[in-house]
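User: Hello! I'm new to structural biology and keep hearing that structure can be predicted from sequence alone. Could you demonstrate with Divalent metal cation transporter MntH? Please show me the input and the output so I can see what each looks like.

Assistant: Of course. The first part below is the input, the amino acid sequence of Divalent metal cation transporter MntH. The second part is the output, the predicted structure written as tokens.
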Amino acid sequence: MGELPTVKQKQRLLAHANGASLGEVNNTVSLPNQAGFWKKLAAYSGPGVLVAVGYMDPGNWITSIQGGAQFGYTLLSIILISSLIAMLLQSMSAKLGIVTGMDLAQATRQATSKPAAFILWILTELAIMATDIAEVIGGAVALQLLFKIPLLVGVLITTLDVLLLLLLTKVGFRKIEAIVATLIATIFIVFLYEVLLSSPSIGPLLSGFIPSPEIATNNGMLLIALGIVGATVMPHNLYLHSSLVQTRQFKRDEQGKREAIKFATIDSNIQLSIAFIINCLLLVLGAAMFFGTTSDLGRFTDLYNALSDNAIVGAIASPLLSTLFAVALLASGQNSTITGTLSGQIVMEGFIQMKIPTWLRRIITRLLAVIPVVICVVMFGGRENAVEQLLLYTQVFLSVQLPFAIIPLALFTSDKRLMGPFANRSWVKYTAWIIAVILSVLNVFLIYGTFAGIG
């Protein structure tokens, strides 16, 4: 006879059988009893870390640094506005998961027909695949820059990331959160060091947080601004967050839910503030080092080379700066890989209620992202400009899918029949709808601008 299952194993089996979101980790992270504020916050912290990864992935890098290189500090205001929008949307996502016990995909499936849910699943999977493609490209380029590994080989190596995730799930979900936090810290330290070396102008930097009318009138600036917004607010994060908050063992009564919402929101806002700082560092790096010298920074390799070129960045140029940039890029790619595979699991189970073995689902999710990159590398002989052009198109996919995540989220969290006393207050409801409309319109312009070549 085998050993009897532990209490934690029984909880996982029950959650999986009941169709809970991320059943194998749902309601498995214990919380301290009779603890103070900081101890409780530490226990609730983690989901915000995994969510924040999507706001500083390789897809953000080129857009932010190009914005600084071309227009100085002016677009810092766009990063600020985007981050405030992200904080509101992610808090709504966390609240949905805590109050209803459903993630956004499950709630959408319950409110729609099977055919509609299937179409939404396909769209969401495309968005997750697009996100994962950006991480594959970022990781492969970083491996090439650091170790001179051919791009195709680097792409294939990134498929092994999924094996790392499978291993990590065996040692506990908190370990995953800790590793991701460490990688985020690596990215933060690298860019803080590089920005400090670049000695940015503090006055223009601070004034950059004040929105400028020029952003709306300068077509080139407007397109970069739209790109920053499109790369900052990620649709898969709304599905992810509504699921991850359910990993905590909070009491499922009104008081327990209220406390869980409070700490989940604080956790999310802290981590998104860190993501905001990192995105600002990226733009400030572009402005301080490259504004007035070059704006030809369309590829990761361009940035890597520019950081060691005295003719561009002056006396501080060094191979160390370039190497640190590539290390941060690799860390970013690894981080987003973890959250991408988790998001794939959430939407597959939520929209179409398909349950397949965890290891198989994660391998499929990863392979779906790798195949387009491999085809691109083979067709274009590993030319980085072609591969990184694919990264640009992934941002368009994300833009297309965004309204299909924001609008249901606004609907569900404003519904008093579903949310009870936790339904959005009037100001939150109207703000959420204004955001949904504005982001939808802006993303149409972003898609048009990408293909029409505005500016």
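User: So the tokens describe the shape?

Assistant: Right, they're a compact way of writing down the 3D structure. Reading them back into a model, for example: The longest helix spans residues 254-290.
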